[in-house]
Amino acid sequence: MKKILIKNGYVIDPGSERKGCYDILIEGEKVERIEEEITCGKNADIIDAEGKIVVPGFIDLQVNPGNTIEYICEMLPSCGITTPLIMPCNVNGIPFLDYYGGLRGVIDASDGQRVNVANAISIEPPDTGAHETYMQLATPVNSIKSRIEEFIELGITAVGEVVLPLGGTAHITTSMSEEFLDKLLNETERHDIPILLHTGLGLQGIEKAVEVSSGRKMHICHVGSTCSQDNIHKALVLLSENGNITSDTHLSEVAGSNSRNSKLVVEYFDKGQAVHIDAQTLKVEKVEDINKARPPFYYNKVNLFENNIICALSEQVDAIESDDLGDGIRSKILLKNLFKLVNSVALEHVKHELMYKMIKKLTINPAKILKINRGTLGEGAFADAVILDLHNERVETVMVNGKIVLFNGKLTGEKGGKRIRFKS
C-alpha cells in the first residue's frame, strides 16, 4: 500500500495537543506516524509543506445543500472542509425530502462524495408553517421517539437543525416551541444523540432554550447571529454557566435562507436589504423581485459580524461553522475571514496561538459535539488533513481518508469521502 509523507509543515492539532514542526506519515486511510522527522526512502509519495500549516480537516457543523449535496461536496475542499454536517433545506427550490425521494435518497447521495458527509435531519412541531422543507419534517409529539429510533437505524448523525421561534422570529412558525423542545430533549437525552437547535432571534430565545433544557445536553447554533440585536455578552455568560449546552457561531457578515417564504427573508426584502452574492467574485446585487428571484437570499443584521468575531474569539463558544446555503459562498467567507483575522496579528507566536484556538473550534470541538471519530491527526486517526498557505491565504492541499482530493489548490480525480454514521 502506497504511503504519503507530509514533510516540513508546522502542525496545529488541538485534538492531540500538538503544535510545532512535524512530519506526518499516512498509510491507507489513517495516520501511521507523526514525528519531528520521518525518513521513508522511496516507499512514500512526499508532499513538502515547508512554510505551510498542516491541520486536521475542518468539520463544519452546518452546511445546507441548496444546490444539491453533490454540488456542495465539490465546493468544500477548497475551503478546508472535509466533513460537513449537512442539514435539511430547500434544494434547487424543492423541499429536501421531495428532491431526494425521502431519507433513503438523502443517505444514498451522501456516500462516496469528495468529502465525508455527516447527516442531520430535523424534527419539527406538528403545527410548523412558513418553510417548505421544515413543514415536511413536522412530527406528531407521540411519534418523536419512533422518529429518533428511525434516524439511529439509518445512521443519521444528529437531530437538527431544529428550528423553533423561542422568543422571536425564526424561519418557521409554531405555537408549541417550548412543549415540543421539552419532549424532544427527553428522547435525544435517552438515546444520547446530538441535537442542534436554532432559536428565535434575540437573547430571549437562547435564555428560553437554556431554561427548557433543564440540564439536558443540547447544542445552540450560530449564537452571534441569533443575538445580533441584543447583548451578546449576556448570552456568553449564560452559556458559561450551563455546561450542558454547547454552541457555535458563524464567521461571516451575512445571514441567509434558501426559502423566499422565510419570515426573515421577507422582512429583509421589505427593508430593501435582501441580496444575491456571486459565488465566484462575492459581488453583491440587490434582489428586486422576491417572487421571481432564485434562492439563496442573503442579508445583514445589526452587529452580526461584530458578534460573530466576539463569539469566534470567546472561550464560551465551542465551534465555528459556515451555515453555507449550498453555493459555497459562506464557506469561502468563513475561510477568508479566518485568514484575515489570524493575519491581522503581528507577533508570530501570538498568530500561532490564535490559529490554535480557531482550529480547535473547526476540528476536535465539533467532532466531540457530534461524537464522531474525526478532528485530529494523531497516530491511528483517519487521515483528513489540510495544508494551509497562511501567507497567500489559501488552501493548498486536502486529504480525505488518506486520498488527495485537492492538490495545489485544484481538485484531483479522487473522491475519498464516507458517510459518517451516528457514533461512528
TrEMBL record:
Cofactor(s) it depends on: Zn(2+)
EC number: 3.5.2.3
Residue ranges constituting the Amidohydrolase-related domain according to the UniProt record: 53-405
Keyword Oxidoreductase in record: no
GO molecular function: dihydroorotase activity
InterPro entries (alphabetical): Amidohydro-rel (IPR006680), Metal-dep_hydrolase_composite (IPR011059), Metal_Hydrolase (IPR032466), Metallo-dep_Hydrolases_sf (IPR050378)
Keyword check for Hydrolase: yes
Broad enzyme group: hydrolase
Keywords: Hydrolase
Signal peptide limits: none
SUPFAM superfamilies per record: Composite domain of metallo-dependent hydrolases, Metallo-dependent hydrolases
Full protein name: Dihydroorotase
Organism listed in the record: Koleobacter methoxysyntrophicus
Gene: pyrC_2
